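FW: tagging you since you asked about this chain on Friday. Here's the raw sequence from the shared folder, copied in full. Didn't touch anything.
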Amino acid sequence: MSSLKETQQSIRLKDVHLDSLCKELKDIHSRILEEIPEVARIAVVSYDHRNSQLYTFAESSTGVNVFSNYSFPLDSCPNLKICAEQRRTRVVDDLPATLNRNNKHSNWLLDQGFKSSYTVPIYTGQNFIGFIFYDSHYKGLFTEEIQQKLTIYCDLIGFSVNTEYSLLNAILTSAEITKELSPGYKNESKEHMERMSIYAQLIAKEVADIYHLDDEMIESVHIFSRLHDIGKSALSTDILLKPTPLAVREREVMRCYVPDGINVVDKILDNLGCPSHRCIEVLKSIVSCHQEFLDGTGYPNGLSDTEIPIPPRIVTVANIFDALTSHRPYKQACSVSGALLELEKMVQGGKLDAHCVNALREHQEYLVEIIRKYPESDPSVSF
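HL: got it, structure written out here
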């Protein structure tokens, strides 16, 4: 494995300042409208190779509702799959005559009155990472001439997507190497990380309308929930791998992992050239606040109520739920229903966000499925 320094140098993003992709799209869209006013919507859909799903990610539109919080398998759309595999664009000149009302997205497009579309796949190197969609209320808009005019904008959007993609993966790669260099923390189970990211994503999607979370924010919570306890990389193996409950003094030392986590994140970002992006604020809030409670009894800063951002509220609930439903050398796992009961007690005690807990309650069968799919492989080293 390459050293941490070598990897960070290879993915260094010096002096990069990124707005959210939604803002980037809106800026680009405004420029397109000056030249091609019939383009009513631009959307970027991301591709997750781990589950072969396409996810709504960012969009800019004029005069239509936003379509968000939706995913579907790439295999369910053969035409798009061909575009991705063969690096081909797609033009649909007459959407009403072409689309069937067999899914939520098709229904939405038709209900919004879109008549034509132009689809461009996006890649990082040889890897497919998503699509750009242009939609219009006019049939047959996307002629070869219009496609040619849009080429430069496709490049700009592709650059913005790739830069954000590179930033996210640079942070994750650096964090993974940091983990591997820690004798105790590297034993943190991959299953725990996977469950955490799934629970956090589920909660974020369910509370998105309540807390006005866009798809880009949901994805940041999904990705960075994996790094909530990165500060444990600074702790000794005596504490991290202790098979019995921690003593009072050991618990006090354990609590230091939160500020240690911020230091680790700051070092990673410094080595990446101190890039600036909204997702970094999400990462820092998750690492620094995921042990805070709404009643002010959490740590390290005793924050309460609105002092605690929504992303760490989500991760706090996901983390406690996972701890309750996971086996430990010194305790048995709770059932999903039992864990939800404990979470509800914490809601009533003013500690947890009720909306986040309710989000889990609505998906109990799915939670059972995730626990079965990603079980703790070695309880003796899980924590």
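FW: Confidence is low (pLDDT under 50) at residues 1-17, 378-383.
HL: agreed, and Residues 235 and 257 are 7 Å apart (CA to CA).
FW: great, closing this out.
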